[in-house]
Amino acid sequence: MRMETPLGRVRGLGSARTGAHHWWLERLTSIAALVLFVWFIASILRLPSLSHGDVVGWLREPLAAVPMLLLIVTTFWHLKLGLQVILEDYVHEEGMKLFSIVLLNFFVISGAALAFFSVLKIAFGGDASNG
Amino acid sequence: MHRNPSRPLSPHLTIWRWGPHMFVSIANRVTGAGLATVGAAALVWWLAAAATGADAYATFVSWATSWIGIAIGVGLTWAFFFHLLAGIRHLVMDIGAGFELSVNKFWANMTILGSVVLTALFWFLILGVK
């Protein structure tokens, strides 16, 4: 006989009221990404070239660096939510599902941190080879 | 997945006549997955190379301008514009609009057409600027 209440038995098996939150954040980050990527594409097209000097010079401006940092956070947040849904849909074995989502979180945070730090380094003028 | 094999399955993917809305639906997921993996890796590489220095940036550029880099680049930009337009379509459908069959089909087709047009326009401008 299982010494569990009916509530205890179902806990952790479903979205437990967080499904709508995930859905809502995916929409919210998509709208932010839409605005930031229109800015990004327009900025890329307006640069005189995509050479190292031009890109670094552009990212040193606060009005380029800050939207770029926001773009990184928004994009990685949005892609984490999206890839998680794909894993939840197609990885059926519970252990493998948990493992793949943990791995996804590690990759997303590592990638976002590397991109975020790179923009900060350029913005604060840390690139010695192109002073 | 636990299923009683003696019970019938509900109608699934294989019985429906294929339409543009079905392509846009699955392609939105596929382009999203591609952008989230290959696209994100390219973005991180580009920024990290720019922050590391001129030599690292030159290595990135030599890869990005090789034939395989250009093929991936064109693929990513198409995936980007497709995911962007399909995403806007989804936001409109999220507020409950655009579900009439003809309207739905029209915007599904426009999503496909628009993604190709925007990709061509983007590369035309990029190559024109350089």
Question: What would you say this structure looks like, in words?
Answer:
The complex is a heterodimer of chains A (131) and B (130). By secondary structure, chain A is mainly alpha-helical. In chain A, 76% of the residues lie in helices and 0% in strands. Chain A has helices at residues 6-10, 19-46, 52-59, 62-90, 94-123. In chain A, helix 2 (19-46) crosses helix 4 (62-90) and helix 4 (62-90) runs antiparallel to helix 5 (94-123). Chain A starts with 5 loop residues before the first helix and ends in an 8-residue tail after the last helix. The model of chain A has no long low-confidence stretch (mean pLDDT 90). Chain B has helices at residues 20-52, 54-64, 67-94, 101-129. With 130 residues, chain B is mostly helical. In chain B, 23% of the residues are buried. Chain B has one domain (20-129): 3 helical TM bundles of succinate and fumarate reductases, CATH 1.20.1300.10. In chain B, 78% of the residues lie in helices and 0% in strands. The longest helix of chain B has 33 residues, at 20-52. The interface between A and B is medium-sized, with 37 and 33 residues. Chain A: Its cofactor is heme. Chain A: Pathway: Carbohydrate metabolism; tricarboxylic acid cycle. Chain A: Pfam families: Sdh_cyt.
Mean pLDDT of chain A: 90
Largest sheet of chain B: none
Tell me the number of strands of chain B. 0
The assigned structural class of chain B equals mainly alpha
- Kindly give the count of domains of chain A: 1
- The number of helical segments of chain B is 4
- Looking at CATH, the homologous superfamily of chain A is Fumarate reductase/succinate dehydrogenase, transmembrane subunit
Oligomer: heterodimer
Shape of chain A: elongated
Coarse morphology of chain B: elongated
- Discrete helix count of chain A: 5
Between the first and last Cα atoms of chain B, what is the distance in angstroms? 54 Å
**Number of E strands of chain A:** 0
Main pleated sheet of chain A: none
Domain tally of chain B: 1
CATH topology of chain B, by name, is 3 helical TM bundles of succinate and fumarate reductases
Function (chain A): Membrane-anchoring subunit of succinate dehydrogenase (SDH).
Membrane topology (chain A): Multi-pass membrane protein
Protein name (chain A): Succinate dehydrogenase hydrophobic membrane anchor subunit
GO cellular component, one term (chain A): membrane
